[in-house]
Design brief:
Strands 15-12-14-13-17-18-16 form a seven-stranded antiparallel β-sheet, with helices on both faces. A five-stranded antiparallel β-sheet has the order 5-6-10-8-9. Strands 1-2-4-3 form a four-stranded mixed β-sheet. Strand 8 and strand 9 form a beta hairpin. It has 15 helices and 18 strands. With about 450 residues, it is an alpha+beta fold. The longest helix has 20 residues. Helix 8 packs across helix 10. The protein is globular, with a radius of gyration of 22 Å.
């Protein structure tokens, strides 16, 4: 990148917020995706929407590529730069601008950490449900770009269900405002759902307005032990069929249970094939009835032990078992390939069998956990990218897993996005017509192709 162009960028954000030294750039050459690296030409830390507008206008004129980046927790290579382009990092854009208790909304900048928003609104008796596993690190801008889900997705939905308004800087530096605080708005095309999950390829979010709801009055946390994995999967389907919608309905298989217990020492059983972490929330009378129904259903599906948290501390301890799953698995081998194949809930048992069979067929270790209540499973391969043969076998196993998910009416990604890692699978899912329409949308928003290029397609 030409020194003269770097100087122009420095005049916008300041020299201290323009990173060009080798060590800093190397840090931004990675996100949480294994096997992929791409060192940017420069990293900018803008402090305002106006600075982003000026940066995008300058880069658009020069044809320099720009990649938005939050905390780098992306699991599909989506926050990595392309061909030594610019990375725009959002850590300075970290203000909770407003919590509007009258309209039940919050407006934030993209660099706000998800859990910081949780704490702020819950201190006011309000609730922002989306809770990705990385919520203590991930940013709201990244959540919107990837349409993040989380443990509470079964009952409350995902990020897209809460985005009411967006302020987006387009590729040429023009500012686009879509939506707002109104509950109903059918004026023209609905742009928010299009921009949510666009993975930074259509614009850079500078303001995000989300819907809030009243904080649930109570919560009951339970843990069910299953000696047979398939029984756990069938119990999930039975709970939903019984018209009980838990706030959380999470699954951990035997490999994951052992890793979590070795890592966190939360008291998980080591002699079972699976456990279900279940939380119901709402009015105390209603959740007592729902908890009783859940216990009965698990019992009918050969649950060997059913535990109900005695207090808030024990509930947090049980929930930590699920939230530490990835960290625990990652300790076993140098490379952890975490995927997110998603199927209809009725297909969970069949999908788990496919994962087990694929792991055995290709002689790789795969631990599976995830959001069983909404069919979003996380088969996680523990491997070493230096072992080229093992990596090849791991990818062959995942190719079979994704094929099976598509055949079951599922998808190749429920949370992590397509990015770089999964774009070869996308045509099989959406077909030629789907790719053509998506490319047309990209062309309309970004005709020069400078915004997060190389991703999705």
């Amino acid at each position: 990148m030409e020194p003269s162009f770097i100087k122009e960028l420095q005049t916008i954000v300041g020299g201290q917020y323009t990173l060009t030294d080798r060590e800093s750039l190397a840090v931004y050459g990675y996100d949480s995706t294994p096997e992929i690296e791409s060192v940017p030409g420069a990293v900018l830390l803008p402090g305002s929407s106006d600075e982003i507008i000026r940066i995008m206008h300058l880069c658009h004129g020069a044809g320099v590529t720009v990649t938005p980046r939050g905390s780098g927790t992306n699991l599909s290579g989506g926050s990595l730069s392309h061909n030594s382009g610019i990375v725009l990092q959002t850590s300075r854009l970290n203000r909770i601008i407003e919590v509007d208790e009258e309209n039940l909304t919050a407006t934030v900048e993209p660099g706000v950490i998800t859990s910081a928003l949780h704490r702020e609104v819950e201190s006011r008796g309000l609730f922002y449900p989306p809770d990705p596993g990385s919520m203590n690190i991930s940013t709201m801008g990244g959540n919107v770009a990837e349409n993040s889900g989380g443990l509470r997705g079964l009952k409350y939905g995902v990020t897209a269900d809460y985005v009411m308004g967006l302020e987006t800087v387009l590729a040429d530096g023009e500012l686009l405002r879509s939506g707002g605080k109104v509950v109903k708005d059918v004026a023209g095309y609905s742009l928010n759902p299009l921009l949510v999950s666009s993975e930074g390829t259509l614009g850079f979010f500078t303001g995000i307005t989300v819907k809030l709801i009243p904080k649930p009055q109570g919560k009951i946390t339970m843990l069910a032990h299953f000696p047979v994995l398939q029984d756990a999967a069938l119990a999930v389907s039975a709970i939903i069929a019984a018209k009980v919608i838990p706030a959380t309905l999470e699954f951990l298989d035997k490999v994951t249970i052992k890793c979590v217990e070795d890592y966190a020492h939360v008291g998980l059983p080591l002699d079972v094939d699976a456990v279900l972490l279940i939380e119901v929330d709402g009015h105390p009378v209603v959740i007592a009835e729902e908890a009783a129904a859940v216990a009965q259903i698990c019992g009918k599906h050969r649950c060997s032990f059913f535990q109900t948290a005695r207090d808030a501390d024990e509930a947090l301890k049980l929930a930590a078992a699920r939230r530490t799953a990835l960290s625990a698995l990652a300790r076993l081998k140098p490379t952890t390939i975490l995927e997110d194949a998603t199927v209809p809930r009725s297909c969970i048992a069949a999908m788990l069998k496919v994962i087990q069979d694929s792991a055995k067929k290709y002689n790789v270790t795969i631990g599976t956990f995830g959001h069983a209540g909404d069919g979003n499973l996380h088969p996680t391969c523990l491997t070493d990218e230096r072992d080229k043969d093992e990596i090849k076998r791991a990818h062959a196993a995942f190719a079979e897993i994704f094929d099976a998910a598509i055949a079951m009416g599922g998808t190749i990604t429920g949370e992590h996005g397509v990015g770089l890692a999964k774009k070869k699978y996308l045509p099989k899912l959406v077909g030629e017509s789907g790719i053509r329409v998506m490319r047309g949308i990209k062309q309309a928003f970004d005709p020069k192709g400078i915004l997060n290029p190389g991703k999705i397609f």
